[in-house]
């Protein structure tokens, strides 16, 4: 194990909590010491759920280790069942309690509860959060689902599907489910069950009644969908509908599975395509973008960024080692080297090396972007409070494409605004002491001479960027580089460093900067 200040994924029992918390009448009893009960905060403070997660802890202490911790766990299970009356009970151990080897499954079954008891074997020292959520969902389905009635299946009926994968603490899962449900209904497809999000034990039992499954989040649902296909001959979708092109492909896939025609008017509310081809397109085209997050969102976002926004993908990566193959395949398409790691410091070093003009990532990349003064938008978990908005903000479907366009473009536009303010800061009308134009003469401003004198004594902020190994930048050259618009600053830096390397210069001065500009302008 590696000690770290932050991590992209928690231990697998947090993934189990995400599934249990998403459902309505399931309870999770976790064998855990007193210090392992922090996970409640994830749901009540970050996702701001109006209820506590359905999780009970045995909460043994150090003094209990010399006694019977197994009996403590049995009492916790019995008390939780008496208090909450769930329709199914999940039992397992936290990463610390796993070392005690008390066998939660066997202990809970010995109580002979009148509901299904599902033990979870989640190896905390080999696996992580998304795998834990996937395994928990799979075990629930495998233990609860019932075969469909053959007579009902043979009778004429409306095409139907299940939506699999959304959980608690998922990035925009609530809004994605709403958007894709509306899309499927517009296509004439009935949505039978959405699971795990808001699903009951009875809903899980009915999964086999649908004609096919829609997998929105493969990290959570792939294993379950593959098992349902083997056991009940239910096909499942492979396309993740993030972006306009992918949504169109998703529509073709589900209409093929349901044997339905594609109705007209589905794209009436789609604006991102027109916007990306409007006057902003000249400003957006060729922007260098770096992506990092879970594999599903990174691969889909890279496609949207490249094909529909006109960005240049200069790097991408994931912390999802189980889906590293998919990310490596995507990296080949954009001719970049994939970054497969769960070390945020390695991600920061890669960003410094690539000098992107926009970062699309998790909340960790948001922190990195602030330190490096690079525009950033969040596209993937792990996320924080601001990524659970009160408004409707899906990532999937045609409305999701509109949201993505706004979310990605606005950081770039605000960056341009900041640059313009910096560029004109020495103008006598725009200096910091000037009165706002809409206030007229109601505010007494400093004289232009005084303001200019203060501005002249103020140093421009130094860009936070990686220093090249071959040539060092002088302070004056760094200041001059800071005056260049941020959206071409990275290119100017790279060209200057390349020129200095070719000329054998150990220090980059202001003269070197302008010599390089003249050299590459020929």
Share of helix among residues? Answer: 40-55%
CATH class of the largest domain: Alpha Beta
Amount of beta strand = 5-15%
For the termini, the CA-CA separation is 54 Å
Domain unit count = 4
CATH architecture call of the largest domain: 3-Layer(aba) Sandwich
Tell me the major beta sheet. Answer: 5 strands, parallel
Low-confidence stretches: 437-468
Task: Kindly identify the CATH topology of the largest domain.
Answer: Rossmann fold
Overall mean confidence score, pLDDT: 85
CATH superfamily of the largest domain: Nitrogenase molybdenum iron protein domain
Total count of strands: 14
Report strand order across the widest sheet. Answer: 10-9-8-11-12
Q: Which outline best applies?
A: globular
Radius of gyration: 27 Å
Number of helices: 21
Family: Belongs to the ChlB/BchB/BchZ family.
Enzyme class: oxidoreductase
Keywords: 4Fe-4S, ATP-binding, Bacteriochlorophyll biosynthesis, Chlorophyll biosynthesis, Iron, Iron-sulfur, Metal-binding, Nucleotide-binding, Oxidoreductase, Photosynthesis
GO molecular function: 4 iron, 4 sulfur cluster binding; ATP binding; metal ion binding; oxidoreductase activity, acting on iron-sulfur proteins as donors; oxidoreductase activity, acting on the CH-CH group of donors, iron-sulfur protein as acceptor
């Amino acid at each position: 194990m590696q000690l770290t200040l932050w991590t992209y994924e928690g231990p697998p029992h947090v993934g189990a909590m995400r599934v249990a918390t998403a459902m309505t009448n399931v309870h999770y009893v976790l064998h855990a010491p007193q210090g392992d009960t922090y996970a409640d905060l994830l749901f009540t403070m970050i996702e701001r759920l109006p209820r506590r997660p359905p999780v009970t802890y045995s909460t043994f202490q150090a003094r209990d280790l010399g006694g019977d911790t197994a009996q403590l766990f049995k009492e916790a299970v019995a008390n939780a069942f008496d208090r909450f009356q769930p329709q199914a009970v999940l039992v397992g151990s936290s990463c610390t309690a796993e070392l005690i080897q008390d066998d939660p499954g066997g202990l809970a079954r010995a109580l002979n509860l009148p509901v299904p008891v599902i033990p979870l074997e989640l190896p905390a020292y080999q696996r992580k959060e998304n795998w834990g959520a996937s395994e928990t969902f799979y075990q629930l389905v495998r233990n609860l689902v019932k075969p469909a009635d053959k007579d009902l299946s043979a009778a004429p009926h409306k095409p139907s599907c299940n939506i699999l994968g959304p959980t608690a603490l998922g990035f925009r899962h609530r809004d994605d489910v709403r958007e894709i449900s509306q899309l499927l209904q517009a296509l004439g497809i009935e949505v039978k069950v959405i699971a795990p999000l808001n699903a009951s034990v009875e809903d899980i039992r009915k999964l086999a009644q649908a004609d096919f499954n829609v997998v929105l989040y493969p990290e959570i649902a792939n294993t379950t969908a593959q098992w349902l296909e083997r056991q009940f001959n239910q096909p499942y979708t492979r396309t993740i509908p993030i972006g306009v092109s992918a949504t169109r492909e998703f529509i073709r896939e589900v209409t093929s599975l349901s044997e339905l025609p594609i109705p007209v008017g589905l794209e009436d509310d789609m604006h991102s395509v027109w916007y990306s081809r409007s006057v902003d397109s000249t400003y957006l085209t060729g922007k260098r973008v770096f992506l990092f997050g879970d594999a599903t969102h990174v691969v889909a976002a890279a496609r949207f960024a490249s094909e529909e926004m006109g960005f240049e993908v200069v790097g991408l990566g994931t912390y999802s080692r189980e889906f590293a193959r998919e990310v490596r395949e995507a990296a080949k398409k954009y001719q970049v080297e994939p970054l497969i790691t769960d070390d945020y410091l390695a991600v920061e070093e890669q960003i410094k090396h690539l000098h992107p003009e926009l970062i699309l990532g998790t909340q960790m990349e948001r922190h990195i972007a602030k330190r490096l003064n690079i525009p950033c938008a969040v596209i993937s978990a792990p996320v924080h409070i601001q990524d659970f908005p009160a408004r409707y903000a899906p990532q999937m479907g045609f409305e999701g494409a509109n949201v993505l366009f706004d979310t990605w473009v606005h950081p770039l536009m605000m960056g341009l605004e900041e640059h313009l303010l910096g560029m004109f800061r020495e103008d006598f009308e725009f200096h910091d002491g000037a009165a706002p134009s809409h206030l007229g003469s109601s505010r007494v401003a400093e004289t232009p001479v005084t303001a200019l004198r203060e501005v002249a004594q103020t140093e421009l902020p130094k860009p936070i960027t990686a220093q090249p190994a071959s040539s060092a930048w002088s302070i004056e050259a760094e200041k001059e580089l800071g005056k260049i618009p941020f959206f071409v600053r990275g290119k100017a830096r790279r060209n200057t460093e390349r020129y200095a390397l070719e000329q054998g210069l150990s220090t980059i001065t202001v003269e070197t900067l302008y010599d390089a500009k003249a050299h590459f302008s020929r």
